[in-house]
Specification:
By secondary structure, the chain is an alpha+beta fold. The strands form 2 sheets. Strands 3, 4, 5, 6, 7, 8 and 9 form a 7-stranded mixed β-sheet that branches. The protein has a two-stranded antiparallel sheet with strand order 1-2.
Amino acid sequence: MTINDFVTSMVEEVEEIIKDFSFLNIHEEAARMKGYPYELPVRAVQAGWDTAEEVQNEEELFPYFLVHVDEINYEDEEAQAKVWLLFAVYDSSQEMEGWKTITTTVERVINRFRVNPVLEDYYYCERKMKAAYPDTGDWPHFFAGVEMTWHLPVLEPEF
C-alpha cells in the first residue's frame, strides 16, 4: 500500500462516482471524464516520451480530472496526505452550463466521501473538505478543485 496505490485507487473511484454524468469534449461530443494521476499525459508527449495517448495539447483531454498529492505528513502509526482533485470541463454554449456541470461533479464527489469516507478499506478521509473555484472564468473551460485530507496506513517499526 503505497501512495501510488492510493492515487490509482482514487482515480478509479472518482471515475466510478461520475460515470453516469454527461460531459462534452472540445468537439461538442459526449465524453466520459477521465482521471489522471498527478499530471496530464500531454506533458509526456511534449517531452518526446512514448505514450499510449498521443495528444498535443491539454484541450484534447477535456473533460478530465487530476489526483494530486500536495504533501504527506508521517506520524507514529499513520500518515496524513493533503490531496487535491482538480476538475476541468468544456462547454462552449452561450448558457455557460459548464459551471453547473463542474459544481455538480464536485458536489457528487464530496458527498460520496462525506457519507462513506473509506477507500479500499485501507484509506479514510476527514469529513472536512474544501471546494475551490477560480476567481474569474475562462470560458469555455471550467475548473474546480477539492482539497481533502486522507489518512494512510504506514508500516509498523521493526524492533
